[in-house]
Design a protein that fits this description.
The protein is α+β, with helices and mostly antiparallel strands. It has one helix at 34-44; strands at residues 3-4, 8-15, 24-31, 55-58.
Length: 65
């Protein structure tokens, strides 16, 4: 994870499309928690009200090497 300041971490932002089993990765956004990161994303990208419930944030999976 990438740490921003003392308390923020970087979350992955996804959108779940109807009828599609896999969510689509939209990008990354730092935040205090997933709700904060989602709110920052939708504000920065002027997301319409009907798309907002389909968008969610989660911590990224650790990459194994």
């Amino acid at each position: 994870m990438v740490f921003h300041g003392d308390y923020e971490i970087e979350f992955e932002i996804y959108e779940q499309k109807e009828g599609d089993g896999r969510p689509r990765l939209l990008g990354r956004m730092p935040g205090l928690d997933p709700a904060d990161a989602k709110e920052r994303w939708v504000e920065d990208h002027n997301v319409s009200a009907d798309r907002r419930p389909k968008i969610f944030a989660c911590t990224p999976l650790m990459e194994w090497k």
